[in-house]
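Q: what sequence does this backbone want?
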C-alpha cells in the first residue's frame, strides 16, 4: 500500500491520514485514552519489558487511526507479526467502526489473541463478539483495565501475553487504586485530610491519578496553598458514579469548603436533578484541561475544540458552575524507543493557573469582607445611546432596578446611600481620573495590546471623554456603591456595527474606565441587564488568554450580571468570557390590552373599511374621509 501522509494540526482541522511509524511487536495496545496508554507503558517497564521479561509491545492512541487509510496502513505495517492485541473503546464500536472491522478480520485470519474491551465499566456483548478470547478472559482484562495504574496494567499485559502463547510470571503488588479518596501533591493518595482554615476542595478524575498524569492538579493545589487556602485533592471515577457521589457528599459535608474547584468534565446532575458538588452550598469553579496542544490553543480564536467546549464548559454550565478558564494542555513526552510511543500528557500552564487562582481569590475576598466594607460598582449600559434611553436593558427597567438594589443593599448592612433619579443625574454627574494614573495602569497591559489600542484610536488625549488632563466618566458615588454608565466602546456613529464586533478594539476611555474601577479597590462588578459590551471585546471565544481584552479589563474582579432568562445565548457569552455569574430574571409580565373608549368608533370604522375593501369599493372610498375625521378628533392623526 502506498499512502501519502501529511501532518494536520489545529482545533479546526478534519481527520487526515496519519502514519504512527511503528514496527511490528508481539503485543499491541490501542486506546483513545492517553491515561490508559500511560499506565500500560509504566506497567511494561515495571515488569521488566526492556530486559526481555515481557513480550515486546507497541502502544498507539486511536486518535491517530481515525482515517481508514491510517487503519489499513497500521494493520499492514504494525499488526503484522502481533500475537496479542488489546483495544479499549470509549463509547462502543461506533467510535471506531472501520478499525474494529479490519482488526478483528485480520486477527481471525491470523489466529491472533484479540480483546476488544469497553472503557465505561460496563459489559458490552457486541465488543465480546468482535474478540477472539473467551468471555472469562475478557472480563478479567476489563477488570484490570478499569482498576487502572501501573500494577494493574502490568497484570493485564501478563494476561494478554498468556492468551497469546507467551510465558508471563505472577505480578506482585496491589492491583487496585481506591475508587475515591484524598490526594496530596507531595504524598499522593492519603487516608484522610486533617484541615483547618479556608478549605478549597479540588475534585478530579481518578484516571489522572492512575495514569500518573496529575501535573495540572498538583500545580493548581500548590498555587491555591500559596495564596493561603487549605487546598485538598479529591479524586473520583466521575461525578455520576454512585461511589463518587456518596464519597463527595459525605466528604464535602465534613470539609465544609469555602469553594470547590472542579476539574472533571460534563454535568454532574443525577436523575434527581442534583450534583454531589451542590451539598456545601459554596461556589463551584470549573476549570478545563484541554486535550489540544498549547500552540493550537494560542493560535485558535475559538479557544477550545468543539469536544473540549462541550465537556468542560457547556455541560458544566448546566450545573451552575463558574467557568474560570483552562489550566493545562496536552504535550508529547519524550518518545520511548522500546515502545515507539510518545505519551501525550497534561502539562500545566503557570500563567493560566495564576489567572484562575486570581479569580477564585477575588470571589473569596468578596465573601470574607464584611458587608459594610464591600465596595461595589453598578454599571449600566449606554445602548442605544439616546438621552431618553440610557441604561437600556432587554426586559428590565435598569434604572428602577438600580434604585431597588441600593435600598436592598442598605437594608442588608452595606454602607451604601440609596438614591433615585439616575436617569437625569447620571449623564450630568462625572468623576475624573487623571491621565497620568491611566498611563501608569496601562503599563500593566501587554505591549502588543497597547500598540493595537494606539493604532486604532491614537493618543488618549483625542478621546471624547478626555478634557483638562483627565478622563471624565458619567458616574456618581452612593457611599460604597458606585453607579456608572458604561462608556462607548467605539465611535457613536458606528454603534450598531461595533456593539457585537469581536474584532473592534475598545477606545481609550473604555479601557480607562475598567482600569479605574479596579484601581478603586472594588470587590465586585455588577453589570445590570442584557447587555453591555464587555463580554464582546476582542479575544478568544472561550478559555481566554492574558492577551484577550475581557480578561485584561476585568482581572480578578467577580462579575455579577442580572440577565433576562430567555436569552441564554448571549448570557453564555458573559459566563464564558468574563466568568460572570448571571442572575436570570423573568420577562415583564404581559397584560391584556383593551381599545380605549375614545377609539372604539375609529375601530368600528376601520373594520368596515376592511370589509368594504374587497366587496364595495365605492363605500370603501367614502369611508376614508370619515375615518380621517374620526382619527383627527381622537388625536391620532
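A:
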Amino acid at each position: 500500500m502506498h499512502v501519502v501522509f501529511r501532518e494536520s494540526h489545529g482545533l479546526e482541522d478534519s481527520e487526515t491520514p496519519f502514519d504512527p511509524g511503528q514496527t511490528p511487536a508481539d503485543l499491541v495496545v490501542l486506546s483513545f485514552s492517553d491515561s490508559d496508554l500511560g499506565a500500560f507503558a509504566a506497567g511494561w517497564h515495571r515488569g521488566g519489558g526492556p530486559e526481555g521479561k515481557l513480550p515486546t509491545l507497541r502502544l498507539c492512541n486511536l486518535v491517530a487511526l481515525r482515517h481508514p487509510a491510517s487503519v489499513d496502513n497500521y494493520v499492514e505495517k504494525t499488526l503484522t507479526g502481533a500475537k496479542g492485541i488489546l483495544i479499549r473503546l470509549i463509547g462502543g464500536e461506533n467510535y471506531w467502526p472501520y478499525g474494529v472491522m479490519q482488526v478483528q478480520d485480520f486477527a481471525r485470519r491470523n489466529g491472533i489473541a484479540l480483546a476488544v474491551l469497553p472503557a465505561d465499566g460496563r459489559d458490552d456483548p457486541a465488543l465480546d463478539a468482535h474478540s477472539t478470547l473467551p468471555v472469562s478472559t475478557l472480563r478479567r482484562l476489563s477488570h484490570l483495565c478499569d482498576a487502572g495504574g501501573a500494577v494493574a496494567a502490568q497484570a493485564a499485559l501478563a494476561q494478554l501475553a498468556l492468551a497469546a502463547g507467551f510465558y508471563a510470571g505472577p505480578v506482585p503488588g496491589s492491583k487496585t487504586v481506591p475508587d475515591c479518596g484524598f490526594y496530596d501533591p507531595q504524598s499522593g493518595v492519603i487516608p484522610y485530610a486533617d484541615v483547618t482554615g479556608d478549605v478549597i476542595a479540588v475534585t478530579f478524575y481518578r484516571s489522572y491519578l492512575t495514569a500518573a498524569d496529575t501535573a495540572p492538579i498538583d500545580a493548581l493545589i500548590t498555587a491555591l496553598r500559596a495564596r493561603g487556602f487549605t487546598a485538598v485533592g479529591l479524586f473520583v471515577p466521575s461525578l455520576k458514579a454512585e461511589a463518587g457521589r456518596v464519597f463527595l457528599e459525605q466528604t464535602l459535608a465534613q470539609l465544609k469548603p469555602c469553594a470547590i474547584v472542579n476539574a472533571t468534565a460534563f454535568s454532574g446532575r443525577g436523575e434527581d436533578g442534583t450534583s454531589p458538588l451542590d451539598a456545601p452550598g459554596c461556589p463551584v469553579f470549573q476549570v478545563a484541561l484541554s486535550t489540544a496542544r498549547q500552540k493550537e490553543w494560542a493560535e485558535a480564536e475559538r479557544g477550545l475544540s468543539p469536544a473540549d467546549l462541550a465537556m468542560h464548559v457547556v455541560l458544566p454550565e448546566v450545573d451552575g458552575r463558574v467557568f474560570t478558564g483552562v489550566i493545562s494542555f496536552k504535550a508529547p513526552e519524550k518518545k520511548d524507543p522500546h515502545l515507539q510511543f510518545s505519551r501525550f500528557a497534561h502539562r500545566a500552564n503557570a500563567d493560566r493557573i495564576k489567572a484562575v487562582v486570581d479569580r477564585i481569590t477575588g470571589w473569596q475576598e468578596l465573601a470574607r469582607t464584611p458587608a459594610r466594607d464591600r465596595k461595589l460598582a453598578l454599571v449600566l449600559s449606554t445602548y442605544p445611546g439616546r438621552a431618553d434611553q440610557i441604561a437600556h436593558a432587554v426586559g428590565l427597567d435598569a434604572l428602577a432596578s438600580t434604585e431597588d438594589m441600593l435600598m436592598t443593599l442598605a437594608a442588608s448592612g452595606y454602607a451604601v446611600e440609596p438614591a433615585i433619579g439616575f436617569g437625569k443625574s447620571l449623564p450630568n454627574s462625572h468623576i475624573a481620573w487623571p491621565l497620568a494614573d491611566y498611563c501608569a495602569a496601562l503599563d500593566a497591559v501587554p505591549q502588543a495590546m497597547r500598540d493595537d489600542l494606539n493604532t486604532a484610536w491614537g493618543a488618549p488625549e483625542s478621546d471624547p471623554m478626555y478634557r483638562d488632563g483627565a478622563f471624565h466618566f458619567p458616574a456618581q458615588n452612593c457611599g460604597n456603591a458606585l453607579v456608572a454608565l458604561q462608556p462607548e466602546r467605539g465611535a457613536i456613529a458606528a454603534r450598531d456595527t461595533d456593539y457585537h464586533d469581536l474584532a473592534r478594539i475598545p477606545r481609550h476611555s473604555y479601557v480607562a474606565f475598567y482600569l479605574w474601577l479596579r484601581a478603586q479597590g472594588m470587590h465586585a462588578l455588577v453589570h445590570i441587564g442584557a447587555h453591555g459590551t464587555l463580554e464582546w471585546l476582542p479575544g478568544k471565544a472561550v478559555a481566554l488568554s492574558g492577551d484577550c481584552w475581557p480578561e485584561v479589563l476585568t482581572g480578578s474582579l467577580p462579575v455579577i450580571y442580572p440577565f433576562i432568562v430567555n436569552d441564554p445565548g448571549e448570557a453564555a457569552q458573559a459566563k464564558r468570557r468574563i466568568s460572570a455569574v448571571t442572575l436570570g430574571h423573568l420577562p415583564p409580565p404581559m397584560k391584556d390590552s383593551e381599545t380605549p373608549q375614545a377609539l372604539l368608533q375609529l375601530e368600528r370604522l376601520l373594520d368596515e373599511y376592511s370589509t368594504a375593501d374587497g366587496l364595495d369599493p365605492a363605500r370603501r372610498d367614502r369611508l376614508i374621509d370619515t375615518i380621517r375625521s374620526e382619527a383627527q378628533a381622537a388625536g391620532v392623526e
